[in-house]
Description:
With 153 residues, the chain is an alpha+beta fold. It has a single domain, classed as Gcn5-related N-acetyltransferase (GNAT) (Aminopeptidase). It has 5 helices and 7 strands; from the N terminus they run βααβββαβαβαβ. The chain has a 7-stranded mixed sheet with strand order 1-2-3-4-5-7-6, with helices on both faces. The longest helix has 16 residues.
Amino acid sequence: xxxxxxxxxxxxxxxxxxxxxxxxxxxxxxxxxxxxxxxxxxxxxxxxxxxxxxxxxxxxxxxxxxxxxxxxxxxxxxxxxxxxxxxxxxxxxxxxxxxxxxxxxxxxxxxxxxxxxxxxxxxxxxxxxxxxxxxxxxxxxxxxxxxxxxxxx
Length: 153
Ligand SMILES: CC(C)(COP(=O)(O)OP(=O)(O)OC[C@H]1O[C@@H](n2cnc3c(N)ncnc32)[C@H](O)[C@@H]1OP(=O)(O)O)[C@@H](O)C(=O)NCCC(=O)NCCS
């Protein structure tokens, strides 16, 4: 049985592995173990019979803008709605925190469209705040990710 819950320290090794396996494939940004520890309260995981099978985190960028980060689902569990549930929990948390817009920088345009996100022009976003973390990315000077947003209210 699948459930979504807040991450705990016991989950961090497998979270690290899931996130960085996809990061090695260029699908999202790498996370160090210490960055997972430091931001643990921002993470949710999907669990199936005690096994961590998905991750997501919410990162607040500004008064009205938060970013969904480190979204993963283990490939054995693709296509059964876990990714959408992880996105929805972050949308709901953004709403309950009073953050109006949730951003994703992503290659998974069709998936995020299914979750209600729309494509926006990156130049319309407050990029200095977003780029603070992008500076650690190998594609920083040549970013080809898509910016997608959803209104949480
Ligand atoms: C993207 C990802 C999180 C999707 O997870 P998932 O659990 O397989 O997705 P879901 O089952 O919740 O799919 C929700 C909907 O999106 C669709 N969908 C899922 N992946 C898709 C894809 N790659 N392209 C197009 N549509 C996709 C599903 O068919 C489903 O459609 P429906 O609502 O009409 O049935 C998962 O493929 C993944 O972890 N990928 C590798 C890491 C990654 O790219 N993360 C995103 C970083 S921004």
